[in-house]
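re: ur question from earlier - yeah i can do the single chain one, its not a big deal. heres the input i used so u can compare w yours
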Amino acid sequence: MTSQDVEERTQEVKDLITPELLQHLVALGE
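and the output i got, formated as tokens:
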């Protein structure tokens, strides 16, 4: 796997982590 592949995959993950998802995670942690 090249560093470019890693960058593309990281961007995909960032696109999946939406504010809504973060709010759900925070709510679960409380």
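DSSP finds two helices and no strands in the chain. not sure if urs matches, ping me
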